[in-house]
Specification:
heterodimer; A: about 120 residues; mainly alpha; two-stranded antiparallel sheet; about 5% strand; disordered C terminus; B: about 90 residues; alpha+beta; Ribosomal Protein L30, Chain: A; 3 helices; 3 strands; about 30% helix; elongated; Ribosomal_mL60 (chain A); structural constituent of ribosome (chain A); 54S ribosomal protein L31, mitochondrial (chain A)
């Protein structure tokens, strides 16, 4: 009844082991925590350098162009671009996303464009 | 003097070569490794490259490996009130 060999539908059938199309609220929460962690690191680095009277171009560009976690759209937070998928977006949790390393966490930015950058472009 | 305390929280496996190179250069070879570096622009730039994988705090003092180990060690749970007298030979 319990333990690793319990009889459940996914284990007995095989085809029922599916990844739901949307993230659970706990997955979304952890994703937000990850994004917020990056925000705090950037602000830590920025304030530490500011105390020495220095700055870094990379940090300045990040602050200017990248939206923080609160400013990001849900689309950018929880989905990544994939050209093979209908409507070009898939969840960050999908198995194919993990296997194909589409939007591997941190290897490229999926933050979208900040509002300021849009205003610059326009 | 201020230092960056950098801890590797997520492994660099599967990351681009440049990111893995930065991790190696900072001496972050395994998860949960902690290193200290004085605050400088070059270190800040390296942190920006690996910001998704690490935890960074600005601290006042540097800690050696032994000091970090001692800080992790739990309390013994007892203390010696009085030493027994030593035998004199």
């Amino acid at each position: 009844m319990f333990g690793p060999f319990r009889l459940t539908n996914p284990l007995s059938g095989g085809l029922l082991w599916k990844v739901p199309w949307r993230l659970s609220r706990h997955q979304k929460y952890r994703q937000r925590e990850r994004l917020r962690g990056v925000d705090t690191i950037v602000s830590t680095v920025d304030s530490a350098l500011a105390r020495l009277g220095q700055s870094l171009k990379k940090v300045e560009m990040w602050k200017k162009e990248m939206p923080t976690e609160q400013e990001m759209l849900p689309k950018d937070k929880y989905t990544v671009f994939d050209r093979k998928v209908k409507r070009y977006r898939k969840g960050i949790h999908s198995k194919c996303a993990l296997l194909l390393r589409v939007g591997e966490w941190g290897s490229r930015s999926s933050r979208g464009i900040g509002e300021e950058a849009i205003s610059v472009c326009a | 003097m201020a230092y960056f305390r950098i801890t590797l929280m997520r492994s660099g496996i599967g990351m681009p070569k440049k990111v893995q190179g930065v991790l190696h250069a900072l001496g972050l070879k395994k998860r949960m490794t902690t290193v200290y570096y004085p605050v400088s622009q070059s270190i800040a730039g390296q942190i920006m490259r690996i910001k998704e994988l690490v935890d960074v705090k600005e601290v006042e003092h540097m800690r050696t490996k032994e000091e970090m180990r001692a800080a992790r060690r739990p309390d013994k749970g007892y203390y010696i009130e009085k030493r027994s007298e030593q035998m004199e030979l």
